[in-house]
């Protein structure tokens, strides 16, 4: 039914891409690894006969979202490399690793349960996957009949998100950067230098 | 039948692994942009799970919900990037640890 070769190739791409997102020093490389992961997931959608979602995945995610992230990286000039060798909080990575390993173990337990006992949900509770209709037609029919109210709400959500992004990213009228954090010494460096100069002049 | 079960399980295992990698990235990285990308990874893993469960239960709703998740993810990225731009404009080069103005 499902081609194992396609699945294995996609799984390798998806896993290596997602590891690349996490361990890349440069945010640009992270974004490019994210593109690889999203393409792999799109192919996996196609494998499961979700053609519309595969197309939307490529158009919305890799076409819009990742490009937006790359624009912000370039705009802010935050593409400097991050030193991953130092650990800002002691034990952070070990604790995170333990927590994530526990999460993965519990998820795998659930999946083993699904493989042994099957799913508990009721099959085809809203509408069965059609054999005659195309995926696009069936999904469109379902969205515009059963799910019409959530669909209308997403319109409001997108409008609010766009307005919120414009308001937040707008340069304020009274623009002043936050003061730098206080230095560790009692006096700023210039003042100390002045004091040293005055003492030398006095002596 | 056995082959079909094996396939469903392999999709679920793959998305569980991607979800955990994304969660690990959110926990250990300090660059807010990279954290946002790791959240996208987690959302994609959940999308893959939805499509797989929808196919296993022979139900179109799994794909409809993925459609809505995509919309919400787009809105989330737009708002998140707006916040990052606003922070970076006031304090360039800020990491997630530097945004501690509200700390008690």
Topology record:
The complex is a heterodimer of chains A (203) and B (104).
Chain A: H1 4-23, H2 27-47, H3 51-76, H4 92-117, H5 135-145, H6 148-169, H7 189-202
Helix pairs in contact in A: 1-2, 2-3
Chain B: H1 2-28, H2 32-56, H3 61-90
3D architecture notes:
The complex is a heterodimer of chains A (203) and B (104). Chain A is an all-alpha fold. Among the domains of chain A are: 79 residues, Up-down Bundle (Four Helix Bundle (Hemerythrin (Met), subunit A)), CATH 1.20.120.1200; 29 residues, no CATH class. Chain A has 7 helices and no strands. In chain A, helix 1 runs antiparallel to helix 2 and helix 2 packs antiparallel against helix 3. With 104 residues, chain B is mostly helical. Chain B has a single domain, classed as Helix Hairpins, CATH 1.10.287.3510. Helix content of chain B is 79%, strand content 0%. The model of chain B has no long low-confidence stretch (mean pLDDT 86). At the A-B interface, helix 1, helix 2, helix 3, helix 4 and helix 5 of A face helix 1, helix 2 and helix 3 of B.
């Amino acid at each position: 039914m499902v081609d194992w070769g396609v699945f294995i190739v996609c799984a390798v791409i998806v896993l290596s891409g997602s590891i690349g997102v996490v361990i890349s020093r440069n945010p640009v490389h992270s974004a490019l690894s994210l593109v690889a992961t999203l393409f792999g997931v799109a192919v996996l959608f196609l494998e499961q006969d979700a053609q519309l979602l595969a197309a939307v995945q490529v158009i919305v995610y890799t076409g819009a979202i990742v490009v937006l992230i790359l624009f912000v990286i370039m705009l802010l000039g935050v593409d400097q490399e991050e030193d991953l060798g130092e650990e800002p909080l002691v034990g952070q990575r070990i604790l995170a690793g333990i927590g994530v390993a526990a999460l993965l173990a519990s998820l795998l337990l659930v999946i083993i349960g699904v493989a042994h006992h099957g799913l508990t949900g009721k099959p085809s509770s809203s509408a069965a996957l059609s054999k005659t209709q195309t995926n696009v037609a069936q999904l469109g029919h379902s969205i515009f009949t059963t799910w019409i109210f959530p669909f209308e709400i997403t319109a409001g959500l997108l409008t609010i998100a766009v307005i919120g992004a414009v308001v937040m990213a707008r340069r304020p009228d009274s623009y002043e950067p936050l003061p730098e954090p206080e230095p560790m010494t009692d006096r700023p460096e210039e003042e100390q230098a002045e004091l040293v100069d005055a003492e030398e002049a006095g002596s | 039948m056995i082959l079909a079960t094996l396939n469903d399980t392999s999709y679920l295992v793959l998305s569980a692994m991607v979800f955990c990698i994304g969660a690990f990235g959110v926990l250990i990285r300090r660059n807010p942009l990279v954290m946002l990308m790791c959240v996208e990874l987690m959302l994609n893993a959940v999308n893959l799970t939805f499509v797989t469960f929808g196919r296993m239960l022979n139900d179109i709703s799994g794909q409809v919900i993925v459609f809505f998740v995509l919309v919400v993810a787009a809105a989330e990225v737009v708002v998140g990037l707006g916040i990052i731009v606003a922070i970076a404009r006031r304090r360039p080069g800020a990491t997630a640890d530097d945004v501690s103005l509200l700390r008690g």
